[in-house]
Amino acid sequence: MAILEIAELTHVYSAGTPFEHLALDHVSFSVEKGEFIGVIGHTGSGKSTLMQHLNGLLKPTSGKVLLGGRDIWSDKAFTRQARFRVGLVFQYPEYQLFEETVYRDIAFGPKNMGLTPEEIDRRVREAAALVGLSEEQLTMSPFDLSGGQKRRVAIAGVIAMEPEVLILDEPTAGLDPAGREGILGNIDQFRRKKHATVMMVSHSMNDVAKMADRLLVMSGAKLVMNGTPNEVFQQAKELLEMGLDIPEVTRIFLRLREMGLPVEPVYTVEQAQASLVRRKGEGHA
Amino acid sequence: MLKDITLGQFFPGNSFVHRLDPRTKLVMVVAYIVALFMAGNWLSYLVAFGFLAYSIIISRIPLKAITRGLRPLMIIMIFTGVLNIFFTDGTHVIFSVFGLTVTLEGLERAFFMVTRIMMLVTATFLMTYTTSPIALTDGLEALLGPLKKLHMPVHELSMMMCIALRFIPTLIEETDKIISAQKARGADFETGNLMNRVKAMVPILVPLFISAFRRADELAVAMECRCYQGGEGRTKMKLLRYHRGDFLAFSAGALLIAAVAILRSFGL
Questions:
Q1: Once rounded to an integer, what is the mean pLDDT over residues A204-226?
Q2: Which ipTM value was assigned to this complex?
Q3: Chain A interface residues facing chain B, Cβ-Cβ under 8 Å?
Q4: What is the model's pTM?
Q5: Domain that holds residue B213
């Protein structure tokens, strides 16, 4: 069953002023329970605006967002509930930390949900463990941590609400390779443990190619592609025309094809390896 | 919601008012305020109002933007109005309740005071709506230039103002983002008593202050890296120059003051 349904979603910023700007133009798609969806698109293509509609932070100018079959704007209490059921991690989330200790910052969301102190404690510790924060770090001030650790704290703060859908807006932006791997691992672990649905906005084609079941491609406020990574990266030329990247291996294999080697299109290193090994086994290489 | 703040907001455009030199606009606003305070009767108010209305029309600023800017001043205007209605001595009593008398003079005075505030604020809004903050501080620096001889740090002051103005939209955007992020974690700013609402501000203010200090620090380092030293010997990319329009505007301003002064001296 579809957990999120987005129908003809349109959003206009600053309507009626000289700064009027169409950010989303009749976007429709649905998200199945348990899916991992990657969202890619150029800066300013409307990705972030789209994400903020999914938990009711922004109200659609027209169109609907259905959570579990119900319009999230149908009544006030449900809008608030949607905030907890759909957890949103913003870009550079470490800049929203404010509490005196890491523990209290992670507890902010669960506390707002009105949970019991025992339940809050369980969730905070579980979320902290999931993102790899130590017991000792829980008592530290979040401002004494490194950039990567701060981000883990911020992500733990959303994970602790145990949302059914976790949305992350460029969770690895500005991190070093080790930090990226760590965060992506955390997300994957959370998803498996809680059977949650995940949507991740990313500029790294390598990351989304590896992790996502399905890709949404945004361009100029419109949803232009919606399919499996395989289907989407088949249209490499269109992606490049939109100013988007394709995974490095896909690029190499496209070049190989141009050079006359009949290889099938791939988008992860594992596929590439398998494909080359297969060819070698057949005795062509 | 925060985007509704119009303080110092600039509406890009290319009207006659937009093209005026920022110095002209600053001087005109001061002149207009002087004229407003000189005005003391219906006819002079009408002249001042006509002048402002005409300026708004040729600036092509939507009237909605101006009324929106006036809204936060509602309380002050109502307060002024009520005070003047009840506490002005006069002979033409209209009615009196609970020992408070309302006179014709009081009503007239209240009307003048309120329209004076409205026109004063509208005139300054018109300037900030039609002048980019950078141009405005440039103009201010040029106008205050003579004070440099008295060792006043004019350039530094205008640079500070310029930076402050420059960062208003950035900080508003940042605040918006922080509010959204905390709302996504279920923060509630709309319900509860006063104490709870004040407490609800903490998750916004702490990150906002931290980021403001971070930005200030980064900016200071960047300026120092380039050995920034303003004022003396520094040339400008955009030189301010008066054009025909500016002289036209100055003449209109002088005429306005003259007209109000004459009307005043005749006691009309």
A1: 89
A2: 0.85
A3: 14, 16-18, 52, 55, 57, 80, 83-84, 87-88, 90, 93, 95-98, 108-109, 112-113, 143, 157-158, 161
A4: 0.73
A5: 153-234
